[in-house]
Amino acid sequence: MRRLPALVAALLLPAAQPVLLATGLSSASLLVSGAAAQAQSSVDALLEKARALKGKKGSEPEMIKLASQVLAIRQSADAYYLRAYAKSDLGDKQGAIADYNQAIAINPQYADAYYNRGNDKSDLGDKQGAIADYSQAIAINPQDAEAYSNRGVAKSDSGDNQGAIADYSQAIAINPQLAEAYTNRGNAKAELGDKQGAIADCNQAIAINPQNANAWGARGLAKSQLGDRIGACDDMRKSASLGSSVAQRLLSQVCQ
User: Fold this and answer.
1) Which residues contact 185 (CB under 8 A, 6 or more apart)?
2) 97-123 burial string, b = 16+ CB within 10 Å, else e?
3) Do 236 and 217 form a contact (C-beta atoms < 8 A)?
4) 153-159: long-range contacts at Cβ-Cβ below 8 A with a sequence spacing of 24 or more?
5) For helices 93-106 and 111-123, what crossing angle results, to 10°?
6) Cβ(213)–Cβ(242) under 8 Å?
7) Helical spans, DSSP H, in the chain
8) Smallest Cα–Cα separation from 4: which of 125, 103, 140, 132?
9) pLDDT tens for each residue of the chain, 256 residues long
């Protein structure tokens, strides 16, 4: 899951202060102040338009255009972030990472930029780079359950299932309703041979979100490995019905 920033006023130049017409105030000063206020207003409007396009399929080119217009006026961490978000949606992960780099250079405390850059690095196979970015996001915001969960995925993909379980458990401690963390922890437990623990975690994920195809499929696989073919087949069918292509492929094997 990627994130859009809230309006971060500190990242933009402050709006011009009211001008007091005092003796000795030059007309040039008034012009400069007015121009700054106009530029600020333009930046705010462009960023607001870009944010409004979030989640609208096909709007990515316009989002990139708006963010680039902001950057033509001044440097803005939010503009780089929004442009990166759109580039990532278009599949340009390298371009997105470059823009996240710029956002972070402007604002080193931009936790969501680290988080999304971690997602893109993970998608490109750079699991260690992803882990580093998730770790930085967590250092800035220790209550970021999704950063712990995604770091767990990157650790599991790197073969560190014990470390992954620790991260999933921390994510669950922060947000007990994070179904994906239960599913992922179940998968990691299954990899380590704890099939019953995997089933228990998948049960919890399904209780939170009965439409979680991955949880049904993971539980079905664990049941199959424990010899419960009927239960495994039922779960795998449910997963397939919810759209899991993996479960669909495994049906003939599990339900034979």
Assistant:
1) 152, 164, 165, 168, 169, 172, 201
2) bebbebbbebbeebbbbbbbbbbbbbe
3) yes
4) 153/122, 153/184, 154/118, 154/122, 154/127, 154/128, 154/130, 155/127, 155/131, 156/184, 156/187, 156/188, 156/191, 157/122, 157/127, 158/127, 158/128, 158/131
5) 160
6) yes
7) 27-52, 60-73, 77-89, 93-106, 111-123, 127-140, 145-157, 161-174, 179-191, 195-208, 213-225, 229-241, 245-254
8) 103
9) 666 554 443 333 334 444 444 445 555 554 546 666 777 889 999 999 999 998 789 999 999 999 999 999 999 999 999 999 999 999 999 999 999 999 999 999 999 999 999 999 999 999 999 999 999 999 999 999 999 999 999 999 999 999 999 999 999 999 999 999 999 999 999 999 999 999 999 999 999 999 999 999 999 999 999 999 999 999 999 999 999 999 999 998 999 8
Q: Which residue has the tokens 């669950």?
A: 172
Superfamily of domain 177-256: Tetratricopeptide repeat domain (1.25.40.10)
| pTM score over 0.85 | no
**Angle at alpha carbon of residue 177, lines to 127 and 204, rounded to 5°:** 90
- Tokens standing for residue 234: 């039922």
